[in-house]
């Protein structure tokens, strides 16, 4: 901040924004931040928060889609008599042993 801005920071804040009720603005002025800098920071913070919200919503939708797909796959395999949670080689052996027992 320039020396000229430091000497007139409080005056500029009161003349351009009128009476400030927000304690964050008052604290920022006390720390030698311009009200426009505080406003820019708040806008950037809001934009970052919105982007994080969109990212989390997208990831939630992707995970929901994947979980739905897995559930549909498991239901379809259960309906066919295939246990999706059984080890790979067990089902073929069980079918072969069942056929051998009937002969």
Q: Can you tell me about this structure?
A:
The protein has 103 residues and is mainly alpha-helical. The protein is built from four helices and no strands. The longest helix is centred in the middle third of the chain and has 45 residues, at 35-79. The protein is rod-shaped and about 75 Å long. The model has no long low-confidence stretch (mean pLDDT 77).
Give the topology.
Blueprint: H1 3-17, H2 23-30, H3 35-79, H4 88-102
Which characteristics define this entry?
single chain; mainly alpha; 0% strand
Rg (CA only) = 33 Å
Write down the secondary-structure element order: HHHH
Based on helices, strands and strand pairing, what is the structural class? mainly alpha
**Ranges with pLDDT <50 over ≥5 residues?**
none
Question: Can you give me a brief rundown of this structure?
Answer:
The chain has 103 residues and is mostly helical. It has helices spanning 3-17, 23-30, 35-79, 88-102.
């Amino acid at each position: 901040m320039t020396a000229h801005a430091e000497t007139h920071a409080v005056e500029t804040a009161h003349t351009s924004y009128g009476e400030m009720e927000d304690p964050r603005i008052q604290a920022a002025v006390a720390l030698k931040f311009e009200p426009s800098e505080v406003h820019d920071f708040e806008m950037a913070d809001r934009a970052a928060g919105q982007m994080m919200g969109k990212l989390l919503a997208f990831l939630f939708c992707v995970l929901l889609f994947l979980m739905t797909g897995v559930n549909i796959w498991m239901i379809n395999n259960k309906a066919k008599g295939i246990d999706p949670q059984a080890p790979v080689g067990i089902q073929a052996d069980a079918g072969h042993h069942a056929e051998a027992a009937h002969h």
